[in-house]
Amino acid sequence: MLVLTRKLKEAIQIGDDIEVKILAVDGDQIKLGIDAPRNIEIHRKEVYLDIQKENHEAARKVSLEGLRGYIKRDQT
What we know:
The chain is α+β, with helices and mostly antiparallel strands and 76 residues long.
């Protein structure tokens, strides 16, 4: 893990397309601004983990037999 120290209004660059800037510091909270291409999904970690959990649960509910039936119906 890379650990950086940044002051207010300073930024870090990730690759060519992503910039993370410190916008405000208020007590123990930091406000970040993230400038990235629209095709890059950005989520808070807890939201990302919820999405991954829901995707995993949905994938478990899909059976191969159900998919085969759908593919056969779609081809007719």
